[in-house]
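User: Can you help me understand a structure? I only have the sequence.
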Amino acid sequence: MKKTVAVFLTMLVAMLGIGLPIWFAIEESQRQAYKAESAHALGYARDVVMRADEMGRQAFDGFVRLRPHAGSPCSMAAIDLMREIDLGSTYLQAVGYVENDRMLCSSIGGSTSVLELGPPTFPTDRGVIIRTGVRFPFAPQQSFLVLQSGNYAAILHNQLPVDTAKSEPDVLLAVVPLDFGRPVSMRGHIDADWVARLGGRREAVFEDDDHVVAVVRSPMFRIVGIAAVPAHYLTGRSKDVAARLVPAGLVAGIALTCAIVYLARQQMSLPVAVRNALRRREFFLEYQPIVDLRSGRWTGVEALVRWRRPTGEIVMPDLFIPLAEQNGLIVKLTALVLERVCADTGAFLRANPSFHVGINVAPADFHTGGFLERLQRTLQQMGAQPANLMLEVTERGLLDPMVARETTGALRRHGFLLAIDDFGTGYSSLSYLESLELDYLKIDRSFIEAIGTGAPTSQVVGHIISMARDLGLRTIAEGVESQAQADYLRRQGVQYGQGWLFGRPMPFWEIVRHLEAQAAQEAGPVRAAG
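Assistant: Let's start by predicting it. Here is the structure, written out as tokens:
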């Protein structure tokens, strides 16, 4: 009897030793996956609200400026002001004066072209009139949103508030006015009941059938932003994590349950992994050449940060850079990049003062005190000049006008080169760029890929090049992969190119070896002539 009980207890302990760790692993993986996807959805919903608020703010600021012209709303002075408001905005397509559902004059058509707006879709409780799905002769394939206050209205691109999460097109996004109850801007189908789940709260996150849904209330207007992440993201993330933990539970046993749960939390938290990688110095740099399209010479490089995990896995920056930004780690990552650039390139830059290294900087770097001093210390350690460093910042990094102007001005005064990166993917206006002190404009690879394809975006490259020329900026084309693209860009006056046609990202010693070979090849004909 005792032997039977002992055997039973032994089997029970064995089963618990295997089952409990597995159960803990599955539960923890589901909890962490839901937490991550909730933050995922909430981030998108907040971004939608921010875009919608900025759209509304720009429209109402324009209406306030136009009201002094109410006595002669279509005079030349009023139309000139409309065009000034239009040009200075990042979200408005046009502004104009309205009577009887007709825009009698506007920034886009002057006083000679009347635009038919059609009947209002709905009025808000504040007297604002909203029209959705409006189409115009100048863009018959596009649907616009018209926001009217009094006799002034703004024409807005219907998709601007939800023009985010491009890498995840199955994420549902929408802007819903609380006075209307239906989306005025959306991507995908939104359940009308989701708005009611917000109640009186500022934000709400919940799981509904096939989605993890976040609803965020605007602090400025009576609207909410909605983002719904498909459940397969949650399921996939949970399975990936559980697949790592369950085998460990089978091996470790019940005595290691607590340790397994602790390690699971650590491994499932990518921000913690990034923080640990910074501490362990797992990040390294590769350098991609920047080429003079006329001579073919390598005139500089862009430093590209990579993450090699202890397993040998290479994590690409598209994953860890957003995590570093969201978790306050990007400033430390930039400091590590500067340290690596100093070690890799210092001796070469001292001997080649005309060569430059491009370094990507984040918005947080601009907002952090001591950024300029850190750059100067790096130069001092390298023995290089400020013009040896080109600081690359995206349009998103320049959204705060005051900080952008002050920082770019200070950096330029100290001799650093400045470039706006991935240009064309944001909504920077010409007037705003004119207010910044820049040296280079880098054309995003998505527009370079469209060259010669006949796609609508293929026409954008020419406009960007013309804009850069008007601003006196030198241009660098990113993602050049064919000789046909390089020839087109050179004919259009683009000075520099970057992409696999000229060289893949590589260690800096390979850059030096190529430059030495290039110099020897150029020196050969000179010696022969002598």
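Now, to help you interpret it: The longest helix spans residues 2-66. The chain has 16 helices and 21 strands. Let me know which part you'd like to focus on.
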